[in-house]
Amino acid sequence: MKDERRKHKRFPVIRDLAEPVELFVQDEHPREVPAVLTNLSVGGMSLVVFAHVTGDTRLKIILNVPGLEGVELNGHVTWEERKGDTTNVGVKFNHVSHDFTKRINLMAEDFQNCELKLSFGLKDVCFRDCTYWPLCGKAVRMK
């Protein structure tokens, strides 16, 4: 089993490839840059940014994720990996509200419970009240 050293549980955000975010770089030349969200946790997120972004850059992020529409976050780049004209980045949030923490933790818990059930070969794992349901792209997802 993979050694997981992350402080917070995370979950993928890959429905319809990736969910968009509004990303504002807060450096000497503040600007909005296109980006897509690939995973999310209470502590941070991973993004593919369609620009070059370097370590420790301050960011303002507005989420457009089902169940988290319009949530505004501030953070900074903790790691970056350039790939051509894009940069994969890890972002650490500066502060998150209690409500955001609760919603993200519930989504991460529901996602991981589903993954566990599927790993045991269970077929009937989906339920309508799942907080991860709006993002789910699994074949077992309820219609």
Keywords:
143 residues; alpha+beta; Thrombin, subunit H; six-stranded antiparallel beta barrel; 7 strands; 37% strand; elongated
Would you write up a description of this structure?
The protein has one helix spanning 98-119; strands spanning 10-12, 19-25, 31-41, 44-49, 58-63, 72-83, 86-93. It is α+β, with helices and mostly antiparallel strands. It has a single domain, classed as predicted glycosyltransferase like domains (Thrombin, subunit H), CATH 2.40.10.220. The radius of gyration is 16 Å and the shape is elongated. The model has no long low-confidence stretch (mean pLDDT 84).
Q: What fold name stands as the CATH topology?
A: Thrombin, subunit H
Number of domains: 1
Poorly predicted runs are none
Number of helices: 1
CATH class category: Mainly Beta
**Gap between N and C termini, in Å?**
32 Å
Order of helices and strands: EEEEEEEH
